[in-house]
Amino acid sequence: EEEEEEEDLKLGDLVLNTPSLDWVVVPEESDRVICSKGSPPRLTFRERGAILRACSVDLSSHEENSVLSTSPQHFTASSDGVKSQEGSQEFKGNKDIFSFHSSFNSALLEGKKAGKARLEARREIHGKLERAILEAENLKQMAFQESVNRWKAEEDAMDAKSKAEAEESKYHKEMKRRKEIEEEVEKQSLEYERFKVEHEDYRRELLMVQDQCSALKHQMRESELNVKEFEEKIISAAQLLISFKEKRDQLRIERDKAIQELEILRRMKQQRTAMLSAPQFSTFSLTEIDEATRSFDPSQRIGDGKYGSVYKGILRHMEVAIRMLPNDGSQGQWRFEREVETLSRVRHPNILMLIGICPEARSVVYEYLENESLEDHLVSKGRYPPLKWQTRVRIAAELCSALIFLHTNNPPIFHGNLKPTKILLDANLISKIGDLGIFRLIPQNQIPPISRTVYTDPEFLETGVLTADSDVYSFGVILLLLLTGRPPSGLVKDVRSALRKDKLGMVLDSSGGDWPIYHAKTLAWLALRCCDRKQSNRPDLASEVWSVLEPLRKSCDAGASCLEKQEKRQPPSHFICPIYKEVMQDPYTAADGYTYERDAISGWLDSGHKTSPMTNLELSSCDLIPNHALQYAIQEWLQTA
């Protein structure tokens, strides 16, 4: 009995120790019971008690059937029925539990009497009871999960229904909007048709207006021009009105300035007129000529010819060449001075400058060139370094330029006696033609007969008429001399033969360097054309000869081998101002005979000096005389520098 009582107490504790949970009943679903903590529901106390009572009826055989009928498997089926019938059997289970409780009490009393034989049965029932409770727990969890799933499905269905209703509302709104748009489109279509009709009307009216547009445009252009003209006149008048007020004061100031400037211009014009009317050469006294030539000392004589002797000397501190001409008495004096004045106005960088004359000695003073003549460099070899071929090409171009200048002068000037001895070279090997127009300074009765030389034009020898082609013939022979460096006799024939045999290099002057054979042939053929015996076959200097020589000269000047151009040219000493030590721009001669820059000597005299800056002797006067001849010489030198 003690063991049975102990077993009963365990069963009671098992029922009493089942935790009592707080249940929350969902109002809309009466069969759904969930835990407030969110976990699946467990068996209620009553359900557990019903299972214990049903299991305790296993005391007798007829009660075993009752117990089996209320076993966990049967209860599981009952639970499934309860769920399938949506809670309709809950009340019926409670009734059975009460009836089963009374049966359980009676069976308990009878069991105590049965003793130890039933103890094992109770233990087995206890095990079954635990299993039944576990199965009931599982079944109830499954029922809860199904309820949750159904609840979620219903919520999803409600959401879907709400979305469907929202979409349906949108659809109705869209249909309404579409209907409005269609109505608006129809309205716009009607409006378009109306505009189309109006546009057609306007187009017809435009065509009618365009018919009148031409006349209106013409009138409008005329009106615009008139308006523009009037506006410009108004603006101009306004500007003039404003400017007149401003200029009124300016003109008063400018009037005084103009008066002053006019006075200055008048003085300048008078000075310029005096300079233009003044002779372009200086006049020297017989005493100066005698001192310059040391009384015509033979050691000072540098040349003799049919036109007189040439002396070297120093006049007014300038190194000069003095040619003594035959005397014609007093009757030819006026003609002599007139011809000298004409020749002195001929200024060219490659023509020897005429500085002045001495009427008493009937002499002409030229600038002196220290490198003597071209013949001295080509024929008299050994005295001077040989001329490079580039220098020879440049000399030919300079001669051509000077002859073109003379032939195009008004009236034309012909040299008539051009040959290497008449071509002088300065310190920088710049060529200058000398003895220009010398035959015009000699009395007609003293002019020597025409000499027959290789440089003289054959037709001139026959006719005695001097033309530009006569100088062209002489230039051709000089060009051949520059190419070959040979004596002029038979030179034309030799060069023509060498060209025909294609052996021009055999006759070229090798001392001039390596001649470019193509340029040399070009110059040789050009020279032979100039030396043609018929004047009509000779080329024109300006249009034919110059077009060949000028490009060759430029190529020589640009070449690195053109040493003459690379060296800095030194000005002649008489071009240098004794005070400033620079090339003079406006040379003036003082009473001491020296030539100075005008500003330099004027400043010297204005500072109170009465003596010469060079000799320190007292000046006889403070008068200054412009040295036009030296000024032109300096300008020519600067042009070729």
What's the gist of this structure?
This protein is α+β, with helices and mostly antiparallel strands and 641 residues long. It is 57% helix and 7% strand. The protein has helices at residues 2-16, 45-55, 61-69, 72-84, 90-114, 119-211, 213-277, 286-292, 333-344, 374-378, 389-407, 458-463, 468-484, 491-500, 517-530, 541-558, 563-566, 598-606, 628-640, and strands at 23-25, 33-35, 282-283, 301-303, 310-315, 318-324, 354-358, 363-367, 423-425, 431-433, 587-589, 595-597, 625-626.
Structure description:
By secondary structure, the chain is an alpha+beta fold. It is built from 19 helices and 13 strands. The protein folds into four domains: 2-171, no CATH class; 279-368, Phosphorylase Kinase, domain 1; 374-567, Transferase(Phosphotransferase), domain 1 (Orthogonal Bundle), CATH 1.10.510.10; 573-640, Herpes Virus-1, CATH 3.30.40. It has helices spanning 2-16, 45-55, 61-69, 72-84, 90-114, 119-211, 213-277, 286-292, 333-344, 374-378, 389-407, 458-463, 468-484, 491-500, 517-530, 541-558, 563-566, 598-606, 628-640; strands at residues 23-25, 33-35, 282-283, 301-303, 310-315, 318-324, 354-358, 363-367, 423-425, 431-433, 587-589, 595-597, 625-626. The strands form four sheets. It has a six-stranded mixed beta sheet, sandwiched between helices. The chain is elongated, with a radius of gyration of 71 Å. The protein starts with a helix and ends with a helix. Mean pLDDT is 78; it is low at 19-39, 58-86 and 560-567. One of its GO terms (molecular function) is protein kinase activity. Residues 296-553 form the Protein kinase domain. Pfam families: PK_Tyr_Ser-Thr, U-box. Residues 66-88 have a biased composition (Polar residues).
